[in-house]
Write a structure and sequence with these properties.
Layout (H helix, E strand, L loop, with lengths): L1 H15 L21 H8 L30 H4 L3 H4 L22 H20 L3 H4 L4 H4 L15 H6 L3 H7 L35 H6 L11 E2 L1 H5 L38 E2 L2 E2 L22 E2 L10
Antiparallel strand pairs: 1-4, 2-3
Amino acid sequence: MKSRRFHKLVTLLLVCTPLTITALSADDASPEYSRKGADTCIGCHDEQATLDLFHTRHGVPSDPRSPFGRGQLQCEACHGPGGDHAGRVRRGEERPPVIRFGKDSETDVLVQNGKCLGCHEESADFAWHGSGHDDNQVGCADCHQVHNAHDPVRATASQPEVCFDCHQQQHAQSLKPYSHPFDEGKMDCSGCHNPHGTGTTNTLFVRQTLNDTCYECHAEKRGPYLWEHAPVVEDCSSCHEPHGSNNPGMVSLRGPMLCQTCHSQAGHPSIPREADGLADAAPSPYLLARNCLNCHTQVHGSNHPSGSKLMR
């Protein structure tokens, strides 16, 4: 019953959006387009071209930019000429292939992406070439599901799951006790990264640098400050693990160990260890609770006239 209703809807769409490109002549060596357009494809592929397709931008008959818009080639706008593929073949012979999309496709990734960029060149073409995903031959269909009414990679709640399918290390970090709110559906990967490329760095930050990207949400840490903390100005990841950490504040180490990776402990009243290991004497009470931050509270910078030690 569902299949009959589907074919009726497709037939109505095809009547409203007739093809303007007919089959090529037999003398032409190029593959031919099918004479009935999508009606030919759906005869066999109704499980792939579900009703959801017509709830996407690709299936809008009133939009001339859509593959199903007036004068367009419908399924063959993306999958290429299907006349030979839909024609008769002898028993035992394989059908001539058309362009298929996805990770399991035998079609070259460059050909797949070339079809997508043919329409989406304004939004992705310039920055895409030479980006990390392009260099690693990631296909558009590896991330996007264009036949689905709701593409998971375009929704905040479901996008991280798509990205983590390849970025396993970042997935493991996001499961640590302190991380950005991926699991709560409040943040996605594209909040910090542009998957189509930025033309600046291979890390695909949405801004020019890592710090500028962090300041999009953490503007209070931006400054400028009268008394600056050098690592803050240089690189937020000097102290923080952006994808997740076992330590509060997503810092890479707990203080005072983190602070002592840069600051010598010699001569300071809060020495927790010596050159040969832990100090013999009991640790200073200043190390309890938040340790260094008990005194140096303005660790990101201070505007107080007496704040050179970042204590106020």
